[in-house]
C-alpha cells in the first residue's frame, strides 16, 4: 500500500511540475509575441514613455523588427524631471526624439551581457556609460530596476531615471 501511495504521489508531482513547466514556456512565448511598444503598454508603468514615443513619431520604429534594447524609464522616472524640462521636450519634437533615442541600443543586450560592458552606442549617436556599483547596474546615473523584459523585437530594461544625452 505504501508503494502505491508513493507511486501516486510521484506521478502527481511529475504531472504538476510538467504542467507548470509548460505554462511557463507558454507565458514566455506569449510575452515575447508582443513588440517593445505593446510590452510597455501592457506593463502599465510606462504611460509617459509611450506618450512621448507617440509625440516623437517613434512608435512605428520600436514596433519594427529590431532587435533593440530599450532602457525604459518608468512613469516615476519621468516625474523626477523638472516640469519645465518635460514640457520643453513635449513641445520640441526633435529634442524629444533625441532623448528617446538615447534610451535605445541596437541589438539584444541581456543583463548578463550588460554587466560586462562599460558603454554602449545609442541610436541617437551618443554612448551611455554602464557600470556595476555595489551590485547595482547603473546606466549613466540611472539604476536598472528591472531587467530582461522580453519582447518580440528586443529587450526592455527598466530604469529609475530618464537618461538625458550630452549636449553636442
Structural class: alpha+beta
- Second-tier CATH architecture of the largest domain: Roll
Query: Oligomerization state of this entry?
Result: single chain
Beta-sheet strand percentage?
A: 15-25%
Q: Considering DSSP H and I runs of 4 or more, what fraction of the residues is helical?
A: 40-55%
Which regions contain 5 or more consecutive residues with pLDDT less than 50? 6-31
Net shape? globular
Structural domains: how many: 2
- Counting DSSP H or I runs of 4 or more residues, the number of helices is 8
> Could you tell me how far the N terminus lies from the C terminus, measured between alpha carbons in angstroms?
79 Å
CATH superfamily annotation of the largest domain? FAS1 domain
Average pLDDT, to the nearest integer? 84
- Let me know the largest β-sheet: 7 strands, mixed
What is the radius of gyration computed over CA atoms, rounded to a whole number of angstroms? 20 Å
Q: N-to-C SSE series?
A: HHHHEHHHEHEEEEE
**Top CATH class of the largest domain:** Mainly Beta
Total beta-strand segments: 7
Amino acid at each position: 500500500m505504501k508503494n502505491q501511495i508513493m507511486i501516486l504521489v510521484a506521478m502527481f508531482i511529475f504531472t504538476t511540475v510538467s504542467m507548470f513547466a509548460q505554462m511557463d514556456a507558454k507565458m514566455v512565448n506569449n510575452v515575447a509575441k508582443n513588440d517593445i511598444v505593446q510590452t510597455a503598454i501592457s506593463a502599465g508603468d510606462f504611460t509617459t514613455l509611450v506618450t512621448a514615443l507617440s509625440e516623437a513619431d517613434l512608435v512605428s520604429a520600436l514596433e519594427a523588427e529590431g532587435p533593440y534594447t530599450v532602457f525604459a524609464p518608468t512613469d516615476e522616472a519621468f516625474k523626477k524631471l523638472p516640469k519645465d524640462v518635460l514640457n520643453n521636450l513635449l513641445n520640441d519634437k526633435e529634442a524629444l526624439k533625441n532623448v528617446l533615442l538615447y534610451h535605445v541600443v541596437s541589438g539584444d543586450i541581456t543583463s548578463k551581457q550588460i554587466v560586462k560592458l562599460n558603454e554602449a552606442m545609442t541610436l541617437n549617436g551618443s554612448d551611455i556609460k554602464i557600470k556595476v556599483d555595489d551590485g547595482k547596474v547603473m546606466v549613466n546615473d540611472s539604476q536598472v530596476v528591472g531587467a530582461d523584459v522580453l519582447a518580440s523585437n528586443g529587450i526592455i530594461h527598466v530604469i529609475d531615471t530618464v537618461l538625458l544625452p550630452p549636449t553636442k
